[in-house]
Amino acid sequence: MEREHEEAMREAFTELDRLTRRAYHPQASEADINRLYTEGAAIDQGWHFGPHREQWEFLKAVRSQWECEPDAVRQALRHSLGTPGGGLDAVQRRSIEQARILTTATPRSEIERGR
Asked: Which domain of life is it from (predicted)?
C-alpha cells in the first residue's frame, strides 16, 4: 500500500469512527442516525470494494477487537514484535495503533439503539 493510500485510509476510517460515535450520541434524532449511517456506509463501501480491501477490513476488525478483547490485541502485537517476521506488516501495526487511539479517545455511549 502506497503511503498516500494509507493516509487516505486512515483519514476515512477516522471519519467513519466519528460518524458512528455521533450516531450513538443520546441526543441524535432518528433522522440524524439515518444520515450518519448512510454517510458511514458510503465510506465503508468505497474501501470495502476498493483495491485496499484487506487493509481496510483489518483496520475495522482490530478496532472492534480493541473494544471487545483488548488483551488479545496486546498479546498479538507483542507476539508480532517479538517474532522475526512477526506476521504483521508495518501498515497493520499502524492500524493497530490507530484503532487503539480511536478506542481510548472517547468511549461510545452505552445506549442501545436496536440496530
From this structure: Bacteria
Asked whether the beta carbons of 115 and 79 are under 8 A apart, the reply is: no
- Residue in the block written with cell 493497530: 96
Q: How confident is the model at residue 111 (pLDDT cuts 50, 70, 90)?
A: very low
Give this prediction's pTM.
0.84
Assess if residue 63 is contained within a domain. Answer: yes
What lies within 8 Å, CB to CB, of 58 at 6+ separation is: 92, 95
> CA 91 to CA 81: how far, in whole Å?
14
With a CB cutoff of 8 Å and minimum separation 6, the contacts of 94 are: 6, 10
Tell which residue, 22, 78, 13, 25, has the closest CA to residue 50: 13
Return the number of other C-beta atoms located less than 10 Å from residue 55's C-beta: 21
